[in-house]
Amino acid sequence: MTKRSLSVATTRAKRARRFVLFVVFVVFVLLCVLTYMRLEHLYFSDALFWVAHPHAIDYLQVHRTTKYFSLLVAIGIFAFEIWFA
User: How do residues 10-44 score in pLDDT, each as one tens digit?
Assistant: First the structure.
């Protein structure tokens, strides 16, 4: 193999890894949104907002399971941030 073909193969492998990471992240976010929708009977846009901004959840108005789930979502988002870097 030449040096150029090796670098092309490496670039393709990096793109494939990024694509897989992106797909896993999107699936994670969609599962979180669907869970929020089921737990608190929210609209899709409201549940997506809660995934992006968990500090916006009013802790006096939601169920205990939603509070625990929001902690898992925050840890998951943090893990993806580390994985992206």
Answer: 788 888 888 999 999 999 999 999 999 999 999 99
Count of residues in the chain:
85
The pTM for the full model equals 0.83
Greatest CA separation found in the chain? 63
Q: Helix 64-84 vs helix 3-40: angle between axes, to the nearest 10 degrees?
A: 170
CA triplet 59, 63, 68: central angle to 5 degrees?
A: 75
Radius of gyration, CA atoms only, the chain:
18
Residue 11 burial (CB < 10 Å; 0-12/13-18/19+)? exposed
Domain boundaries, the chain: 22-84
